[in-house]
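Good morning C.,

I know you're traveling, so I'll keep this short. The sequence:
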Amino acid sequence: MDPVLSITVLSVLLGALIALVFFKSYFSKRRSEVQSIAEPELQPDHKKKAAKSSQTISKKHHTKTHSHASDKDQSKKHHPLDVNTLKGHGDAVTGLCFSSDGRSLATACADGIVRVFKLEDALSKSFKFLRINLPAGGPPTAISFADDSIVVATHALSGSSLYMFGEEKTKTTNETKQQTKPEIKWEHHKVHEKRAILTLFGATASYGSADGSTIIVSCSEGTDIKIWHGKSGKLCGSVDTNQLKNHMAAISPNGRFLAAAAFTADVKVWEMVYSKDGSIKEVLSAMQLKGHKSAVTCLCFSPNSEQIITASKDGSIRIWNINVRYHLSEDPKTLKVVPIPLRADVALHYDHLCLSPDGRILAASHGSTLQWLNLETGELLDTADKAHDDVEGYRELHKFLLFRSLSVKSLKSLSDFDIFDFYPFELMADCEITSLAWAPKTIPMGNEQKLVLATASVDKKVKLWVAPSLHT
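The tokens, ready to paste straight into the viewer:
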């Protein structure tokens, strides 16, 4: 045989042998790791005592082979401002809002259910809630109170829908107490054609000759924004930002102004003019907020409706005075510019803003990071880096999705592997905040009355946070 050929064949055989030994060692190691995790759950009843004696060793091995274990234990430590968690949602919570008295908190969940929690005490171990099943179709994307009723936005392939749920009182008898059940009072479909509704904001119209009705503003992912009468569902007006795409829109607490954050650095503001009978007569372009150098991602109004707070991708927050005589061409003024105090290794912009009812504390979020700022000084009061980080919720969801897509014969069931073998802990634990809102009034917390912030996330939970103390 040719010596060169012999050497070549020998090299190939030797390489194959080395590869075989390597992969055998690797898969044996992986199998032992999976078994070490599954072992405690597979112990039969007559071996429970033996399992207890080996539990310490098993836990130590788990910590070493899976670094997420220590991180997971760390995540259970509550932030000092985190006072409670509303559980029971079956999927991501996409929106939330408080009633005008702050005693009810409505949540929209991707499981197709709206839950209205009664907040008798923010420290309660459990909360009563009213369950509203949405019509079959797309999941809810936004929610808002309209007096004692609730308006919900949903989205399907055919487009967005709006539903207003009111309470229908049932007749009482001597044996049964009076009960209420929600029913649809009005509904609209394809309100923004096939575009999804990003935000839904409501306000009590109290400016000028307004009659005190609730006005609802729906903002699409396109460029259009529509204004609705909360009780009747009548379309009162619409505007177009003409800025490629919207990020969000909000209405001032007194129902006078409408402002939109869109694709550009300028914020457009409209005024709703009311007729003598209290209805909206027209919607006029009022002013533009010019000063940011990049797109404005979110905004909110002050409680007195005289200021707008904006956050931009240029890394700054601006506070604007809009209580100007714009009819006489008086421009809105920038009162303060504050740098966004996020870490340098993340994008310097906020996703959500909300100002406390006393106008002093600005709550802001980016991803799963939640921050509180003193609006007057711009000082950062506190930060919750991972405000929502329920690893277990993500673990079970992604395990199912991954298991369904894998074609590995050795995986017989979900218990045969851990999701963190495939995804790093850092990606799984970062649960984005989808919505935040302050209770419009203080609510009971033990023996005290406190300002409370609520946050929703894709981790299936809603958290309640007490307002931080203002530094003096």
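Safe travels,
E.
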